[in-house]
């Protein structure tokens, strides 16, 4: 049982669908598409087996996918697809954290899988043999979902785990050393909290956390401790992460919305549009107005 997604859906449509049975959905897809998908955070986890050419944008990073690959997406990090080639094929499965309630005897903790590794590249490139192996697992998921077996979702869960294991086998995630685990844990919590504020979906929805102090308070740690941990793990200061993420969101809003500069400034936590103008120009070398006109092709 395989279903193709038509041009009105594609990767956009499947991300807007409600999960069947409330917790899981799997489907094969093949299509022609030219429009980028919305840059939003979804409410589910997703594993995509992809063959084609596309640029994946997630958080503030872009990855060119020009050969077969597995792509992992989680609810914490917003992402979008920018098509480069007209033809693509593959499979995807979407599921909730509740669906992946792995029993304690499992050798692989779901939290240790690539899906939870914020700050790492969520793409695992495959050769032809590896692609065929993973494709077989997706076909088995589709076949099992269509069956009448009462425990079919337990079987599907095992297939999802096998896909994760294949990714770890091909591209292992380096273990965190015990000496740095506390700093890594704090840093990951900070990065997750930072990403949860985005994307900004309406001018009335403003940033709640603006400074390193705000994040430290939310994480119940001293701001100096947070700053030290983040710099030690990532090599960049907490304020740099915040600033870069705000700039990335500002560029997206200027390019993809019809909001006024003032609306964008307020949504990003600036008390006055002039403050936003100065901030944006200092970081990018151009004013928000110039950036918006450039994105629109007016200059």
From TrEMBL:
- All copies of domain HTH araC/xylS-type, residue ranges: 214-294
Does the keyword Nucleotide-binding feature in the UniProt annotation?
Answer: no
Classification via SMART domains: HTH_ARAC
Q: Which Gene3D superfamilies has this protein been placed in?
A: Homeodomain-like
Q: Which Pfam families match?
A: HTH_18
Q: Which InterPro entries match?
A: Homeodomain-like_sf, HTH_AraC
- Keyword set for this entry? DNA-binding, Transcription, Transcription regulation
Xref: PANTHER family: ARAC-FAMILY TRANSCRIPTIONAL REGULATOR, TRANSCRIPTIONAL REGULATORY PROTEIN
Q: Quote the protein name from its UniProt record.
A: Helix-turn-helix domain-containing protein
Q: Which organism is it from?
A: Chitinophaga rhizophila
């Amino acid at each position: 049982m395989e279903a193709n997604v038509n041009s009105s859906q594609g990767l956009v449509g499947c991300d807007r669908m409600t999960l069947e049975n409330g917790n899981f959905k799997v489907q094969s897809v093949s299509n022609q598409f030219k429009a980028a998908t919305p840059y939003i955070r979804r409410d589910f986890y997703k594993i995509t087996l992809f063959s084609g050419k596309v640029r994946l944008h997630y958080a503030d990073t872009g990855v060119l996918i020009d050969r077969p690959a597995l792509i992992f997406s989680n609810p914490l990090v917003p992402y979008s697809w920018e098509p480069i080639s007209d033809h693509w094929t593959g499979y995807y499965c979407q599921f909730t954290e509740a669906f992946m309630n792995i029993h304690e005897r499992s050798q692989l903790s779901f939290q240790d899988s690539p899906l939870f590794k914020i700050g790492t590249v969520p793409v695992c490139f495959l050769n032809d043999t590896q692609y065929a192996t993973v494709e077989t697992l997706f076909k088995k998921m589709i076949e099992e979902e269509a069956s009448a077996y009462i425990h079919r979702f337990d079987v599907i869960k095992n297939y999802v785990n096998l896909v994760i294991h294949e990714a770890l086998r091909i591209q292992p995630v380096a273990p965190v050393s015990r000496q740095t685990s506390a700093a890594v844990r704090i840093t990951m919590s900070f990065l997750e909290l930072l990403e949860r504020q985005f994307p900004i979906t309406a001018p009335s929805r403003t940033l709640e956390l603006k400074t390193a102090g705000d994040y430290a308070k939310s994480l119940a740690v001293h701001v100096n401790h947070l700053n030290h941990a983040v710099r030690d793990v990532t090599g960049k200061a907490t304020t740099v992460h915040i600033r870069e993420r705000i700039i990335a969101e500002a560029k997206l809003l200027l390019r993809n919305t019809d909001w006024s500069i003032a609306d964008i400034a307020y949504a990003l936590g600036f008390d006055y549009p002039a403050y936003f103008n100065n901030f944006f120009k200092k970081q990018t070398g151009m004013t928000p107005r110039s950036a918006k006109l450039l994105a629109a092709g007016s200059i």
